[in-house]
Amino acid sequence: MLWLDTKYISLLSFRLRNFKRKGNDQWNFSCPFCGDSKTNKHKARGFIFERKGRLRYYCHNCNVPGVDVPKLVKHLDPMMYDEYVKEKLMADPIKREKTDVELFADKMKPPVFMKSSPLKHLKKISLFQPSSAVKVWIDGRRIPPESHYRLFFCKEFKRWVNDYCIPNKFDEDSLTRDEPRLVIPFLDEEGNLFGVQGRSFKKDAAVRYITIIMDDSKPKVFGLDKIDLKLPHIYVVEGPLDSLFLPNCVASCGSDLTTNLHRIVDDKSKFIVVYDNEPRNDEIVKKIEKAIAAGYSVCIWPDSMAEKDINDMVLAGYTPAKVVDIINENVYSGLKAKLRFSEWKKV
Ligand SMILES: [Zn+2]
Known about the structure:
This protein is α+β, with helices and mostly antiparallel strands. It is 32% helix and 18% strand. The strands form 3 sheets. A 5-stranded antiparallel beta sheet has the order 5-6-7-8-9, with helices on one face. Strands 11-10-12-13-14 form a 5-stranded mixed beta sheet. It has a 4-stranded antiparallel beta sheet with strand order 1-2-3-4, with no helix packed on it. Helix 2 (69-76) packs antiparallel against helix 3 and helix 10 (282-293) runs antiparallel to helix 13. The longest helix is centred in the N-terminal third of the chain and has 14 residues, at 78-91. It starts with a helix and ends with a helix. Mean pLDDT is 90; it is low at 110-115. The site of zinc ion has 9 residues, from loops.
């Protein structure tokens, strides 16, 4: 805090021999650490100067290391240093304890997107005609119709993010490569939007998913608004579209389970982690291993299962209910999980 340091330099000025302000953010005086010098009282080899937004101290005589303005204050006047610390704390709204009035004001604040959700500018998939290209795409993936209202269509995804989610998220150059995307909203327990994923409709898209997070304080998980914590189990899959096929299910969207799930409910036995059936995919294999080591129950797909993810299983003719049965019959934890995992993995 430049202004605070500057203020305390002024307060100290009368104690510093040969004190001179040399410029906006530069001061020179006799170094109080080495005496500068014992024989010649006109020497002044201590300097305070600004570097990268901070004030630093340097003495050309003793080269005393690691001194900044607070340390200088402490060296010269420990009582004044206490004042410095207090004042710094007061000036920093994060570290300072809030007053009752401020706490009350925080409570009364409307949730970030209550007033005008960015989603208001988009059309829900459930509202499209069956013959529309978007609906044909969704139906082609057999996404359960009862979940179509949770998904949205956006004609210019990057433009929409810039306009309604995060100003200037995408630069002009990036906007020239804008395209329509399926918008998958991340809503918290109260239904407030805190992030979105935009999925490309192209089969071989260079960037299949673009994830935008507006509020980092929420666990990066899709489906928080829909899960029932009172039910015995919460299924966890990776892809948000896959999660639409399972009951009481969230999608981790590639985020690290061990840092996210305990924030939903701090009880590992609640979760059944269902990764894709890709025993040759190094990344997936590592994630499953990590989930087992962290103490989660995991589904390890039977060797007879050829499809790699839940959506593919449904497309291959399994009903979602059948998929749930298969998952439930193949849940492992602890030592059994480790044994089954080592049979399953092919890397
Ligand atoms: Zn010195």
